[in-house]
Amino acid sequence: MLPLGLVVLLAWILLLLRFPRIMIPASLGVLAVALLLAVSVGVKQWLDSRQLARIDIRIEYAPQQCEFGKPLLVRIDNRSERTAQRISWQLLARQPGYSSNLIDTGSTDAGWETDRALAPGEQWQHCLRLPRLRSGYQPAELEYQAQRVRAVLVR
Length: 155
Fold this sequence. Notes:
The chain is α+β, with helices and mostly antiparallel strands. The protein is 32% helix and 31% strand. The chain folds into 2 domains: 2-50; 54-154, Immunoglobulin-like, CATH 2.60.40. The strands form 2 sheets. Strands 1-2-5 form a 3-stranded antiparallel β-sheet, with no helix packed on it. A 3-stranded antiparallel β-sheet has the order 4-3-6. The radius of gyration is 24 Å and the shape is elongated. Keywords: Membrane, Transmembrane, Transmembrane helix. The chain crosses the membrane at residues 28-47. This is Multidrug transporter.
C-alpha cells in the first residue's frame, strides 16, 4: 500500500511540474475536499465523545445485593441523547486516595461488555464476578471505577 501511495504522489508532483496551469486548480480542489472531509470527521468524533461522556457507569462491591460469586454491582445510566449499544469498559480497582490499579496484571477478566441497548434516559444494572486482585487486598475496601468506556451510539 505504501509503494502505491508513493507512486501516486510522485506522479502528482511530476504532473504538477509539467502542467502547472491545469494541476494547480485541480490540486486546490483535491485539497479543499480533503480538508472538508477531515473537518467533518473531526466534528463527528467530537460530538460522539460528548455523548459518550454522558454514559454513567457506577460500580460498587455489593455482595448482599448480588448473587453468590458475582459481588460487583454495575449500574449504567444512559444520559445521552442517543441509544447506546455494545457498551464496553475496563474495570479499575484501587484503594481510596491512591491511583494504582489493583487488578492482577495476569487477569483477563477486567474487560467487560454488554450487548444490551440502552435508550436515552434508560438505566440498567447487573452483577458481575470480581476479577482476580493483587494479593493482600480485600475487595470490600477498594473503590471500583469504569475506564476506557466505549459504545456504539445510534439515533
